[in-house]
Design goal:
Elements: E1 2-3, E2 15-24, E3 28-30, E4 54-56, H1 61-68, H2 75-88, E5 93-102, E6 106-109, H3 126-137, H4 153-167, H5 174-179, E7 182-185, H6 187-192, E8 204-207, E9 217-219, E10 221-222, H7 225-231, H8 238-249
Parallel strand pairs: 1-2, 6-7
Antiparallel strand pairs: 2-5, 3-9, 4-8, 5-10, 7-8
Helix pairs in contact: 3-4
Length: about 260
């Protein structure tokens, strides 16, 4: 039996094969076998403090989350977003990924109480951590009496790292990552806590131990952002389609009005 519904995992026992999707810039992925540790902040260009791992979700869940914040914007903004996604290629290939796990090796986040704690006892909170970073980051602008900057970029970056370690932001998820092979962020969590303090975005499975991936290699299916835009009520005009085609042929990565 292959499980494709994350919520159903909460009522299961024993070993299961879970099939979900992963967006990638690569058409073909040869999966590394590794143990993820820490947060997204220190491991990628995306600076959030959610746990570092392989992010898998049900079909369209990731795109629906990304575009949700653009639903109320004007048409030009959404069209630009669609075309930028099409040109950049960052999420162009959708891989169907199967992982084999024992349910006892999955940690479930259902409420705020299931989130790991920072050093002062409060749960991981993205807004709080970012404020700590911003407060230190402002020291870059501090000057002495002679008008010279007091701190270099390197010094400020070290201050930020020291503060993040002090408040436990970098280590918060590590105990869970060591004890479990994956975490499920349930839809129940978002229903109970729509503020999403840990910035976990959407229901998903985050895999820490990628030896659980069934296939060594997967080939993605191309995601059509133009067609996806139609489902949201934003259809490109003929002129916009023609411009997008030209930009794609010329290898452009950004859409310009």
């Amino acid at each position: 039996m292959i499980v494709t519904d994350l919520n159903s995992l909460q009522t299961m026992n024993g070993k299961v094969t879970i099939q979900l999707q992963h967006h990638s810039p690569a058409e073909v992925i040869e999966w590394d076998r590794q143990q993820y540790e820490g947060t997204e902040y220190e491991n990628s260009k995306y600076g959030t403090f959610k746990p570092w791992g392989l992010y898998l979700a049900e079909p369209l869940a990731y795109m629906n989350w990304r575009y949700e914040s653009h639903a109320t914007r004007n048409r030009a903004d959404v069209i630009e977003w669609i075309c930028n996604d099409e040109l950049s290629g960052n999420w162009l290939w959708v891989h169907t990924v199967k992982v084999k796990l024992d349910v006892k090796d999955i940690y479930f986040v259902r409420t705020r109480d299931d989130l790991p704690k920072l050093a002062h006892g409060a749960v991981v909170n993205e807004e709080f951590i970012q404020k700590e970073i911003d407060m230190i980051d402002r020291r870059l602008m501090e000057q002495d009496e002679s008008g010279n900057y007091k701190y270099t970029v390197t010094e400020v970056e070290q201050m930020i790292d020291d503060r993040l370690k002090q408040i436990g932001a970098l280590d918060a998820w590590k105990d869970i990552q060591k004890k479990y092979k994956a975490v499920v962020i349930t839809s129940e969590y978002f229903e109970n806590d729509p503020e999403d303090p840990a910035y976990l975005h959407m229901p998903q499975l985050i895999v820490f131990d990628t030896t659980t991936i069934v296939d060594d290699i997967t080939t993605g299916e191309r995601f059509n952002f133009v067609n996806y835009g139609k489902t949201l009520g934003y259809e490109l005009t003929d002129d916009e389609k023609a411009k997008l085609q030209i930009d794609r042929k010329e290898g452009k990565k950004r859409w310009m009005h």
